[in-house]
Specification:
Blueprint lengths: L1 H9 L3 H33 L2 H4 L14 H7 L3 H32 L6 H13 L4 H10 L17 H12 L3 H9 L4 H12 L1 H17 L2 H6 L9 H19 L18 H27 L11
Organism: Paenibacillus montaniterrae
GO biological process, one term: transmembrane transport
GO cellular component, one term: plasma membrane
């Protein structure tokens, strides 16, 4: 009992209390700095565009309106483009993570003779790129122009993601895989039944990276599929809307009167309000997915996997 009291006294000294207060203040400031840009975009997206020109919109709309969202979603192509974006994100993430994990498992094996050469060859591509024109010509020769698979195949292997998964696999106890081989499991069986379940934290992290990249990508649509509206993605459609809004605002000479909705009452929107609305529309799906993957980031790898 006396030991417990002395420990409480030890950890309740004045310097400790000062440290706790400073730590709390620092974390609150960090939270505010992190959340403020998103909250500001949220406020601008729901605030009347004419009123936003006055400024002083911080984290709460001054004049509420949904005109900015109505302007974006009145575009008939947005909903179909959203489906294409979701499809490329799901399919691209699954295929990319699986193929990258297979490559990572291969180059993590000490018995693989070409391990060092293959690793260097892949890392080399991180520093040197063929360039835009060679990539376009290669894509054309592969028959991927105006094709959905141009979103998936060129980026099927991520070198950085491969290094992350490989490092994770190298940290696994070798005894687990040796015991699987003793039981007669081949390399693919070992990979599917032993390695993949144990690398879930790394796979979840890489999946988030790939999913965000796929969801936010629009330049490949512009290069390879701009002539096929049915293969357009949400980001590309939003980019076109923003480009149109900027052009109209510049030509009209007044950003506040650049656009009008077709609802009967004229409601102005501006490039700034459209940009804020686009940010919210593009960010919300990823924000909703993140909590489901977060729990894997701190999950243990092989607790109790190997018994002495």
């Amino acid at each position: 009992m006396s030991r417990a009291k002395s420990s409480r006294k030890l950890y309740s000294t004045v310097p400790d209390k000062i440290f706790d207060v400073c730590n709390i203040i620092f974390m609150i400031c960090l939270m505010v700095v992190t959340l403020y840009p998103f909250l500001n975009m949220f406020a601008l997206s729901f605030n009347d565009a004419n009123d936003s020109i006055r400024g002083s919109i911080y984290i709460w709309p001054r004049v509420w309106t949904t005109a900015n969202y109505e302007y974006i979603f009145n575009e008939s192509s947005v909903f179909h483009a959203t489906l294409i974006s979701a499809l490329r994100t799901i399919v691209g993430t699954i295929i990319s993570v699986f193929c990258t994990a297979m490559l990572a498992y291969t180059v993590s094996r000490q018995e693989y003779v070409l391990k060092k050469f293959v690793t260097i060859a892949f890392v080399f591509t991180m520093y040197f790129n063929g360039g835009l024109i060679p990539n376009y010509l290669l894509t054309k020769e592969l028959g991927l122009l105006n094709n959905f698979w141009v979103y998936i195949i060129p980026g099927i292997i991520g070198v950085f993601n491969m290094i992350v998964i490989r490092s994770f696999i190298e940290g696994l106890p070798e005894g687990i895989m040796e015991s699987a081989r003793i039981d007669g499991a081949g390399e693919f069986t070992t990979f599917m039944r032993i390695v993949l379940p144990l690398t879930v934290p790394a796979l979840a992290t890489v999946s988030l990276f790939v999913a965000v990249s796929q969801w936010n990508s629009w330049f490949d649509v512009f290069l390879y599929n701009s002539s096929r509206i049915e293969l357009s993605t949400l980001q590309y459609e939003l980019m076109k809307i923003l480009s149109t809004s900027n052009t109209a605002a510049n030509s009209s000479g007044s950003a506040a009167d650049a656009f009008a909705s077709a609802q009967g009452n004229i409601t102005a929107v501006t490039p700034t309000s459209i940009r804020a609305t686009m940010t919210i529309v593009a960010s919300v799906p990823i924000i909703l997915v993140y909590p489901f993957l977060q729990k894997y980031f701190v999950k243990g790898m092989t607790v109790g996997g190997v018994k002495g």
